[in-house]
Each structure stands twice: as structure tokens, then as C-alpha cells.
Amino acid sequence: MTSHTPAAPPGRERRRRDSRVGDKIFMNLSRGSGILLLVVMAAIAGFLAWRSGIALSKNEGNFLTTFEWKPDDPKPVFGIAVLVFGTIVSATIAMVIAVPVAIGIALFISHYAPRRIAQTFAYLVDLLAAVPSIIYGLWGALFLVPHLEGLTSWMDTYLGWTYVFDQSRTATPRNLFTVGILLAIMILPIITAVSREVFRQVPRMHEEAALALGATRWEMIRTAVLPFGRPGIISASMLGLGRALGETIAVAVVLSSSNVLSLHLLDPVGGTFAQNIALKFSEAQPFGRDALMASGLVLFVITLLVNGAARLIVARRKEYSGANA
Predict the structure, then answer these.
(1) Chain centroid to CA 264: how far?
(2) Which residues make Cβ contacts (< 8 Å) with residue 154, sequence separation at least 6?
(3) Cα(297)–Cα(304) distance, integer angstroms
(4) Contact at 8 Å (CB) between 192 and 106?
(5) Is 203 in contact with 116 (CB distance < 8 Å)?
């Protein structure tokens, strides 16, 4: 006797064919979207490199070490030394302040606060992320700057021996330190929101196993939650850093821009890439705009390097991602 496998109903076979076609369409669309993104990034980089080459070919100064920014003079002289320093320092201050606070808020919302309070806090954090940059800038100029005069005076008196917090120019605190605090407030909701969602994805049995072994709540968080969420924290921090590096309006409103590089963070001098482009683009001549494009290319490269470094860190820490749990 021979057995025959019953044929699948026509409707089921048709659904399988439709599913395969849908999978192929989705795969091709996803692949095309990725390729399109790479093409757009390459086009942006190519355009910036082309305009930068025009500016750098006529620059009378060293682009990397010159402090001045006078691309529209008869003999154009411009450089990014002040802009690199201001951008990196202000972003670093913002990250040092924002990341620990954001992680603490995310842990409070996800593991400590009662449900109703946690939902309220989460809503407020998400609401802060929707506030426009200009609002932060106006708040910083009208409220934060005047109220930091006492703090900067105290830091100058008691921490001036560190040289970094020595205020050599007495003036309103429109400086890189104030900008760093403002940027920390701006990137705090982004880092908090992403970290909160990552902490909520920790396997429940990991937490219960740690508690069952006698761990306190903090020991459970330290041994089960934080290692699992480390890649997510890094990714969240990089998102916040990206906004801090590219923030324009708020920095332009708060910082007293100048072409002076000072290691005294409380002095009202310095500048950032985004601020310099926003303030000078409208009044710049065609060659001056090419010079601004050159500074934009440097910011573009810095952003790519930062994100690439974050990807490498996450890739090397796959054992903490929970994939092998």
C-alpha cells in the first residue's frame, strides 16, 4: 500500500505564496532604504567636501590651529581651533552632568516609583523632550544666566586653584560652563527616555533570581539591570551627545561668542561649530559660506566618529546585551 500526503488546501497555498511575496517586497524595501540612506550621507559628505576644498584652497591661515574667523577679508584667514574646543568642552560638560542624572531618573521610574508616580514622571520627561530649542535658549538667557552668577563666583573663590574654574574676566556668566549646564538639561529627556525603556526590557526572572539569592534592590540593579542595559545606556548617551554637538539656537542665545580660546571655563569667550554657522551664515559672502561649509564638514566627521565609537563599544559588549540570556 502506498500512502499519499494530503495536498494543502488551495487557500492555504495561496496565502503562503502571498506571504513569500510580501517578505520579498519588505526585504527589498528595507534594503533600498538602507542604500538610500548611505547615498544621502555620501552626497552630503561630497557636497561639504567640494565646498570646503574651495575655501581651504584660498585660506591664508592654518585651518586647524588658527583662532581667527575672517574668511571675507581680502586675505581670508580662518580656523576652527576655538570652535573645536568650545564644541567638545560644552558637550563634555553636558554629558558629565546629564548621563548620571538621566540613569538615576530612569531607574527611579522603572524600578522604584509606584506605578502612578512613575507614569507621571515618564510623561513629564517625554514632555521636556518636545520643548523647542529656542524656549530653552530664552530660559537660559533670562533665568539660568542671572542665577548662575553666585555659583560662578563661589567656584572662582574656592575652585579657582584648579585653573579651569579660575575666572580671569569678571562678567555675566555667558560661558561654556553655562552652555554645558543648559545642554545637559536639553539632552536629559532623551537619555532618560531611552534608558527607561531599556531597563524595562530586563528579563523579570533575572531580577527575581537576584532577589531570591538575598540581594538587596540596589544589588539586584547593579548585578542584573545595569549590565543588561549597558548597550542601551551607551546608545542613549550617544543620541544625547549628538544633540549636544549640533545644538544651535540655545547656544547662540546664551554664549558670548568670540574668537578667544581660554582654558578658564568661566570666562565669557569661545564658540561652537553650530553656533558659528547659525550666527554668520546670513551675513557671510559666498566665500565665507564656503568656509562655514568647511567647519560643517568637521562637525559632520566628528559626529560620525562619535557614533562609530559607540557602535564599536556596543559590539564589544554583546555579553551584556541580554542576547545570550
Answers:
(1) 24
(2) none
(3) 11
(4) yes
(5) no
C-alpha cell at 21: 511575496
Q: Are strands 69-70 and 77-78 parallel, antiparallel or unpaired?
A: antiparallel
The tally of CA atoms less than 13 A away on the side-chain side of residue 30 is 6
CB distance 314 to 320 below 8 Å: no
- The answer on pLDDT for 77 being more than 50 is yes
CA dist 52 → 37, 41, 215, 288, 316 (Å): 22, 16, 58, 11, 35
Summarised one tens digit per residue, pLDDT across range 140-169 is 989 999 888 888 888 888 888 888 888 877
Q: Are 155 and 266 in contact (CB under 8 A)?
A: yes
Please tell me the total number of residues recorded for the chain in this structure.
Answer: 325
Compute CA distances 234 → 52, 97, 99, 200, whole Å.
Answer: 32, 15, 10, 16
Question: Residues 282-300: pLDDT tens digits?
Answer: 888 888 899 999 999 999 9
